[in-house]
Fold this protein.
Amino acid sequence: MAADAAVGSIGLPAGRARFAAPATRYVAVPEDHRLLASLHAARSGDRLGFEAIYRSLAPKLLRYARVLVGQDAEDVAAEAWLQIVRDLRSFEGDWDAFRGWAARIVRNRALDQLRAVARRPVASAGAELLEDVIARDDTASAAAESISTVAALNLIASLPQDQAEAVLLRAVIGLDAKAAAEVLGKRAGAVRVAAHRGLKTLAQRLEQRSV
Amino acid sequence: MTRRQRKSGAVAETLLDGTAHDATALASLLAAARTAGQPQEVAGLDAALAAFTTSGPLAPVPHPTAAPATPRTVAGRSVFIRAGILAGGGLLIGGAAYAAVGTTSSHPDERHKHQVVEQPSAPAGGELTTGATLVHHPAGSPAAKSTATKPPKTTSPKAHQPAPRGAPTSGVSGDRGHPKHPEHPKNSIRGDNKPPD
């Protein structure tokens, strides 16, 4: 298979396609144009425009928050959306910039949450604890033929923090390397390297799972 | 960068962008992670819409709070600083003037000097000049009469008091000369103040 050969050429082991194929393939440009119009409408106070951008972006932001803070992801996402609504008036930019801006808000709220959890005497599920939970999980060795979105996110969350964030921002939220670097406060090259390493690690774990 | 590394980087970018048209396990994993949102993932839509209505772009802009006590403009700060400089300068000048006046009579030695110079002695028939030398005039002489009617030029209220009986006949009432140096030139007034034999 040509695709498997291509993956193997970058050091990623060629595994069988155990995951269910997505019903709709990711098509960037037409969707972005539609959402950009919705964003302009939302900035003008249109509820339908805001609903469209919420339905498109909220699941991705929630998945990003889940990788960062685990079970507190819904609270973090809710706080982030409150800030997005409050500051939407002052935002200027296109749809890509809006996604990066929203992801940065989610990340800041998640870091606040992690700091609050660290101050709290009762142990809660922070990022490190989430990694321990995922490490105990046998997701990589599961025999399921298909994998759900949650399981895929858990596998991504098992990566080191910088690699997991880089993969999430690029593959799930859809940012390019430069926009992801702005969210993470790093250089674009560092984000690109972290994402590639994360993909390589994921491929190795999938290969171990298939053996 | 080798050709293989470039190729692997390009393949990784297609995987991350979602444009890879292959059916590998990794591509399927990433596709599962970016699937469309589930209904439970947009459960907060109603709350977000409510927030959008209350505090969204069409919400009224809150008015700024009351003006702060300290001026924030450049002109206000300039006036504030000038007023402070004027107040500080006034206090400095006033303090220096007070110190100059107060120290002239605070020290006993300094007070002694002023009394010697300014206060006249009250000897009978005597006249204290500004040079602190006592010139004796015989009683009944024109000089004695003229000086007897003139009030002495002094600023000390003690100078108006008559010398007590039995007091030494020094030039100044209560003046004992220099306390530490009997041979001090200023103490020569005492000897000059003695009535002539």
Observations:
- Chain B has seven helices and two strands.
- The interface with chain A takes residues 4, 7-9, 11-12, 15-38, 41-42, 44-45, 47-49, 51-53, 55-58 of chain B (CB under 8 Å).
- Strands of chain B lie at 126-128, 134-136.
- Residues 108-193 of chain B form one domain.
